[in-house]
Amino acid sequence: MLLYIIRRLLMLIPILILMSMVAFFLIELPPGDYVSFRIQQLKMSGVEVSEDEAQRLMIQFGLDKPLPLRYWQWVSGIVLRGNWGWSLQWNKSVNEILSERIPMTMVISFSALIFSWMIAVPIGIYSATHKYSIGDYLFTFLGFIGVATPGFLLALIMAWLLFTQLGFSALGLFSKEYLDAPWSWAKFVDLLKHLWLPLILVGLSNTAGTIRVVRNNLLDELNKQYVITARAKGLSEWKLLFKYPVRMAINPLLSTVSWVLPGLVSSTVLIDIVLSLQTVGPVLLRATLAQDMYLAGSIVLILSALTVIGALIGDILLVLVDPRIRFGRLAK
Amino acid sequence: MFKRYWWSILIVVAMVLSACGGQATPAPAPAKAEPTKAPVAEPTKAPVAEPTKAPAAPAAPPSKYSEAPILAELVKAGKLPPVDQRLPEVPFVVDKGVLISEKDLPDWEPGKYGGTLRVGHSVANWAPDIFVMMDEAVFQGQGISMDGIRPNVIESYKVENDNKDFTFKIRKGLRWSDGTPVTTEDVRFTFEDMYGNDKLYPNGVPNEFRVGFSVKGEKGTTTIIDDYTFKISFPKPYGGFIRNLWIEGWKGYTLAINPAHYLKKFHIKYTKLEEMQPEMAKMNLKDEWWQYFAQKRCQNWDMTNPRCVDFPGLYPWIPKASGNPSVLMWERNPYYFKVDSKGQQLPYIDKIVSQQVENVEMLNLKLLAGDIDFMRESTGLVKIPLYKENEQKAGFRVVLTDMHVDSSGLRLNQTFDDADWRKVVRDIRFRRAVSLAINRKELIENVYYGYASLPLELVGEEYSKFDVAAANKLLDEMGLTQKNADGIRLYPSGKPIEILLEHGAHAPDIAPVADLTAQYLKVIGLKVTVKQIDPSLWGTKWAANQIQATVMWSHDRGWDNDAVSGSVYRAGVLWSDWVNTEGKQGEEPPDWAKKAYEIDARRWQVVSGSDEYKKIVAEGTAWCRANLPYINFVENVKYPMVVSQKMGNVPQSGFAIAANFSGEQLFFK
Fold first, then answer.
1. Which domains does chain B have, with CATH numbers?
2. pLDDT of res. B20
3. Which of A284, B62, B225, B375 has the highest CB neighbour number within 10 Å of its CB?
4. Which of residues 63-82 of A touch B (CB under 8 A)?
């Protein structure tokens, strides 16, 4: 198993090199660059920027250097100095931007994930064990609606409802009086007041899907012979259910760790934009729009690394939970 | 969280890009004719010959200057010198009619100290409302006009030798926000070490310091006379120089004066490369010190960027670290050089806090929730009913003011690469027919809610009428009489006249106006297909001459030259390329278009705002009416500005942006 892990880790290297190239060059691909974006922005506000000034800005931002050279500077900075580069748009280092945002992103994403599992798994189990009951139909109905409703739409509706009905502005994570205040108990309470909405919205987007997955898997398992045997041997219904079929049924949740891990960092872009949350998702979107290639490239690179690592963790977890699964080659 | 591999994010990004590409940009601004020039005591004659002293000596002897309570406390604690030592010998005195004309703000009053101004921004580190509020230029006029122009960061100035020599005297005792005195060393550093350094400024001085504000213009030479006096001389008359140091394009004093004591730490001439390298390594730089310098230097429009925290400035407020990446914060500058008529040091408001939201629409929502005290750039005329509905509840009021840029105009690119099209569109009769086919009354009613008027200035009465018969007649006269089965006129070559109109929806009125235009032109047998594209793609495509027709706003009323030579760029992209590259690229413009450059060159020579100047401006608008380089829809569009009900010294009319510029005199009642 150790060998397997080492081999998987080694495979990471070529994948990441390729990913870094794709990320960097893709962002460079569309016409224009950060300077033209910024000039457009200034012009919209009435600032006149001459051709001269544009040319000067290109040099000041280092955009006059050829693409491969800029790529090399970026990548060598990451590998040699742990420096993810300099964001043109924010005028600060990528490291700094990410360290400001990743903690809050992870708090939201992780609690939303736990929230969605806490709701989805029991409902999934209930639906499967009470197949075609009224409750099952109700949850199935809600589940389909949940799968079909985009999270950002729900966020918009909720923000509007809260505002018109309760006069509560659900935007951002803090009220205006705590924006620039240092951390305190009152600020923490204020955060909790604002946190529940994104938590539910982000969580809900997965809940419906997870319910379906758990229900279907469990239904498959419940009809298997080992369940009948166990029941015939007189195992209590609860113990039977949770000891074997449920363990099988949540397998897919574990195998999706590869997607969960980058999700924890990237957050849900659309919902975060709608609710004005200061997480990584909107930063990535803006960086891409502004062709801030060091920032966008770095985030994409981190996300792809997390996906690959997540896949590895998922595989290992599966082995631990489900003793039937073996590593193909090691078994030989 | 399950289905989020990295590329699914890219797809979402792409979707959002295409879905909401349009509205992400702040509503810009269309505008109006110069405000009926308010009759002012000392209007345009100012610059000629004799030095103009700062008008109105301080109302009270220096010891009578007072300061904000929070600063008084710091003085008491010994952390700050007393107010007399912080103000220049001759401070700038703000009174009725100084920053805003009396007509626009009749009930100006000395304000009260204190309060935090809450605003919002939707683009990372770019808060245009605050940039405008903070901006300080070399000169200061009323609103954004040339009326009542007076020295701002300088104490006095002199124009001699047929508008060729300009002498400026910095206010003695003027200090940067860190307390260091401002002297001509800051001017010398700017011209010698910045503009004179081929790494920092490969093309030398900016265009403002070239005759005629043009890349081809002769450069001015800067001479330092003493610690406070410097002189800029041009080989040719350049009376527009004053205007260029005041407003056109939101100028800042940073054009001529930069904090040398601070910036020398990042300049190769004064600091060894090895000393800078540890910091440069953070930016992944080895010896590109000029990139490092650029990160450290802040121009006027950089002051909403957190990298400029504590950068020495002359602004009413200075950026401070907020400790929250999505919050920008500014605190009062204890060394600010303006006082009011009672001797109170400005600004009145202690602090500004701006929260970033992820989308312009979110700003409006925050506004309705009462979280915003001032908003200009991101408001929209279409939202007036929404504002009115929430005015009382959220505690703000809507002021309908003028827009400093013009409302949308129809651009027909006469250099677009299509031989049939070129031949037709270059005929003035075609452009007149298009103008006549537009039902402007309907546009004014439906798109601008009645807050606009016919474009009498740039289109003229004759062609801003709605007259389909006359339009058809003009097209028939041109010989475009053949039509296909759909009633679309045919080019002489037999192809139907199909026009692809691509716009970027830069402002809320653009998309509806573009759609209506397509309908209007269909009536006279021209088929227009409307397509909305991403605003930055629009910019690239237009500059590359790839757009046949578009709807876009322009600065034609706020900026005098924009209606004339500026509109050549809107008439034919390749023509303006030809002029800008001195014939190396693009195509030679026809004589009527060349005439525009000749008019503007003359205008730059004479003193801005003088009678002669106004005559040339009138000549420019007449040129515009005669040639219709582009077709304006309406003029005098109103623009809602939203301010807290508690706020005082808010102008009741004039340009919205002018109220924005006068931020230092706003206060909470």
1. 135-302 (3.90.76.10), 406-632 (3.10.105.10)
2. 39
3. A284
4. 73-74, 77, 81
